[in-house]
Structure formats: structure tokens, C-alpha cells
Specification:
With 413 residues, this protein is mostly helical. The chain has 17 helices and four strands.
Length: 413
Amino acid sequence: MTLRKSNAPVNNILGYLRETHVIFLILSLLFGTLFVFIVPPFQVPDETTHFLRIYSLSKGKLYYNTLDTSGSVQIDMPQGILKVFHAVNHLPFNPGNKISFKKDLWPMFFASENKTEPFLLKDVTAVKYYHFLGYLLPAIVVKISELCHLPHYLILIAARCANLALYSTVIYYAVKIVPFGKWIFACLTLLPMSLFLGASLSYDAYSIALSFLVVALFLHWALEGTVVDSAFLKKYCFISFLLSTIKPAYAFLIGLYLIIPARSARSNKDYFLYFFTGIVILFVSEMAWVTQVWKIPGHLDGINSHGQLMWIVSHPISFIAVLIKSIFRGHLIKEFVGVLGWLDTQLSLPVYITSLTILLLATVFSGGSRMSLMQNLILVMVGMAITGVILSLIHISEPTRPLYISYAVFCLK
């Protein structure tokens, strides 16, 4: 009996470490930390412009003002940051170019230069609409790091670590509360592309993590006997607000409310009243932000959004074919698993095969969902709507060409 008592704490710890959400957290922090330190600064898509938003927010600016219609921004940046930027600026879209940490980055690793100089960055339109909350945590870390006079290279590392901590913590909770498919959640968010973004300065770390949390919460509410009452309404309204702070296409996740059984509310009237209350909060919050940044001038060079939109409207059947062709193109599947750098550095074939195999096994052995046919149908419809909208927005933001959709498939997660 004494032996069993002495082993109880050890058994409890081992049992805890076998939990899916704990395994996810360990692997996310482990491999995410490797990404933080191994990937050179500003070598994640648009990471330079994301840091510009983070740094502006650390100075108290919720958004920046562009100089002209080209979407250029000029901001006073520390010389230490600029030295890091110039040291790696030859790497994007040139995967053959290499950099030596010892020779090129180590000399500035502990350097701290407080002087600032104007920094002109062109074409930042791509991130100007993103909500400031997605940058708040790394901005706070940047501010504290500057107050502590940390070297600027370490400030970049600290900001990445903040995003990784947010990404890992939020998804840890999502995996913990989701009533089924825990390994599916864990495997999707541990894919190389997911972690690559989660361990960067990208807004996608915030966006991906929150989207998984929202899905997990709705599934939890639907299957765990949640009562739709005033206490639930407060949580639901808060989630509706959070949805307004991530990419607009994810607003369709609000539709997952409908997988919650109507009998959970006192009446059908209350059930749908709560549903539309969330939609109103989502819409008002979204518009409140968009109206602030919409007036900021800027456009993407070579992009004919109006031409793309008109082509979609006038050729709906052809565009559906474009969507289908894009989803099943091998390159987009590779981007879904992981194409690193500025989407120019492919992984080895065994990595893609292994990742997809593990994801397939997680799906097969995840167990029953305990959901009705109608609930599963709503899940599928919401997923298809988000996928279609995201691909459509990407297509509109590309040069006019009715062929297929490329780039940025990582946001499909």
C-alpha cells in the first residue's frame, strides 16, 4: 500500500503527459522554438510588414498611415532593426541564397543601437486591414523589451516567442475542450506550415489559433449539454467579437452556432434571437474597424481586383471549376503541409507523405463525433463557405488570370 501511495504522484504526472492537449503543447513549443531561432528574421511571408504593424502598435498607433496610393509607409525604426533587415533582404524569393549566422547575424545579435532613421517600406497594403488585437501581445513584448534595453535582434526573437506562446496556449485549450477529433486538431496545428506561421511575427498565428478555438467551443457547446441562457450569451457575444478581429472569411464560423441543439434554449425565439445578436455584434465590430482603415490609401501592384471580380460574376461556372482545380493542385496541397520561406522553399517528399499520412490516421482513428446528420451537414457547409470565400479573395487579389489560385493556401486552416 505504501508503494502505491509513493508512486501515485508519478502516475498522475505520466497520465497527464499522455493527454493529447499536453502532447500538443510540448511538441508545439519544442518545434516552434526551433523555428523561432533557426528561421532568419523577416523570412516568413510579409513578416516585414507584420513587424511594422507590431512596432507601430508598440508606439501607440493602432494602424499606420500610408504616404500615397502606392501603399508605401515611412516610419522611424531603430538602426539595429534596419541592420538585421538589410542583412537578410537578399533571401526572399531566392531560396538558393544562404546566410551564415556566425558571420552575418552574430555580430548584431547583442548589438543595441538606439538611434533611429526613417525606413520606407513599399506595398504594405496586404496587412493594413488586419485588426490591431492580432498584434497586441507581440507589441507589448516589443515595448517591454525596449524599456529593458534588449538588443534589437533579441527583440525580434522575443516578439516571435510571444506569438508562439499565444498560438500554443490558445490551441492547447482548444484541443483540451473539443469533444472529439483531438488528434485532428493537434495534427493540423503541428503541420510544418502551421508552426512556421505560429512561430513568426505573422498575424496568421493569432488568426489560425482563434479559428481553432472558436470551432472547438461551438463543438463543445453543441455536444456537452450547454444551456443557451444569459450566461451563455455573454460567452457567445465575446466569441462573436473575437471573430471580428480575425480575417473576414472566418466570420462564417458564426454559423456553427446552429449545431447547438435548439432545445438547449428556453424557446426557439430565444435560440434565434441569441444567434442574430452574435451576428450583429460581429458585423458592427467588423465595420467599426474597417471604416477606420478603409480610408488608408494603397493598392497592390499588378492587381486588377475589379477585373477579377467581374470575371467571377460573369463566369460563375468557370470560377467554380477554378476553385476545384486549385484545391486539388499538388502545389496547394504542398503549401497546406508546408512551403517555407516566402513560399519558395519546399520540403522533401518524405515530409509531405509522412505529414499527410499522420493526418489521415488521426482522422480515421479519432473516434465517433456523436453528431447528428444535420450537425455534420452544417459543419461541412460552413467549411465549404470559408474555403470558397478565402480562395475567392485570394483570386481577386491576384493578377487577372482565370486559371487557378495560388499562394497563401495556409490560411485555409
